[in-house]
């Protein structure tokens, strides 16, 4: 009896050995399919594929940060008319943060895990109370800096830094003083640094309309109306390369209309 079982066990072991490498390849296939959907601006189907990849390999770095990206993008595109919009967005952004944190645990020496972590937290921050915003803004800046350190050519990380500076600079003197007393020191930002970071993002990837949109806002904050108008127009002229580019164009159209009133 034992003699009959041994060959079967050996055959089964060999079968498992041959199948095991296929699992990692299958995870990669799911990711590639997700990337195809992402390129087609179908973030929900892309997310489904990345989640399937994680079922095969729960610690697959690319699947983790791309899953985070998908959740954040879907949260950004929820219907503004939803009664529970804030709650649903928070749910998406929280999932984005959770997957990004796992990605950083898997690989703490790459730009994308830290960038996605800063992106998800940055979105959450806008939905939270002042005390939490102050605390989280420092952490967000830390992750942005790490993302840039690992890849100085990451245009999205420079974009994030530019937005961070503008958000911090928008906190005026009285608000900053009161906020400092109530919540602790508020990080300092400047519109000049915001402009600098966003110009670098534009230099690295000029075809991305959102870089121009945010640069226009940084210029507008400094009363540079003509330059701001040019950037908003550049956003309108930019190609659609992500699922959110049309949203950016709508925002740029509104911004440009307001700037043109000031230029008359």
List its salient traits:
264 residues; globular; 12 helices; mainly alpha; disordered N terminus
Overall description:
The chain is mainly alpha-helical and 264 residues long. Helices cover 80% and strands 0% of the residues. The protein is built from 12 helices and no strands. The protein has helices at residues 2-39, 43-56, 61-76, 85-106, 111-125, 130-150, 155-169, 173-183, 191-204, 209-220, 225-237, 245-263.
How are the elements arranged and paired?
Layout: H1 2-39, H2 43-56, H3 61-76, H4 85-106, H5 111-125, H6 130-150, H7 155-169, H8 173-183, H9 191-204, H10 209-220, H11 225-237, H12 245-263
Helix pairs in contact: 1-2, 2-3, 3-4, 3-5, 4-5, 5-6, 6-7, 7-9, 7-10, 9-10, 10-11, 10-12, 11-12
